[in-house]
Amino acid sequence: MAVTAARTTRVTLPLSPYPETAIEARLRYDSTDPYAVSLLFPPLHPDDDPVEWWFARALLDEGRRAPTGGGDVTVAPGPGATVHVTLCGRTGRAVVRIPDEAVAGFLRDSFALVPSGAEPAGADLDAELARLCT
């Protein structure tokens, strides 16, 4: 049975033209994919799709304390009790500043569902195979 943890919080994009403008983002964990978390941004315009990035839960946890990651996603402690998640894609790079208390609370909730090291037990392999084969 799938269980989820989610937390909606206000984030900023410190390297954007509007570094102090807060937008809503949602951190989400689903036990059917126990190693991953998602960071979801709502659509900017009514006809747009939301933007969702998936990356390792361990990356988010470790990045709260020290810079980590490579490739498309890196995570590092930011100034003033924040966490910086850097997302690199085909169209560019964005740094997302998330309050550390939101990240810590979200991770606490996700680890209560599936503790670190117990991820394989939380995986619903049949559901993942069915999803991949459709």
TrEMBL record:
Top-level taxon of the source organism: Bacteria
Keyword field contains Cell division: yes
InterPro entries on file: SsgB, SsgB_sf
Keywords for the protein's UniProt record, in alphabetical order: Cell cycle, Cell division, Septation, Sporulation
Localization annotation: Cell septum
GO biological process terms on file: division septum assembly; sporulation resulting in formation of a cellular spore
Protein biosynthesis is among the record's keywords: no
Gene3D superfamilies: Sporulation-specific cell division protein SsgB
Family under the similarity heading: Belongs to the SsgA family.
UniProt-recorded name of the protein: Sporulation and cell division protein SsgA
Organism encoding this protein: Kitasatospora griseola (Streptomyces griseolosporeus)
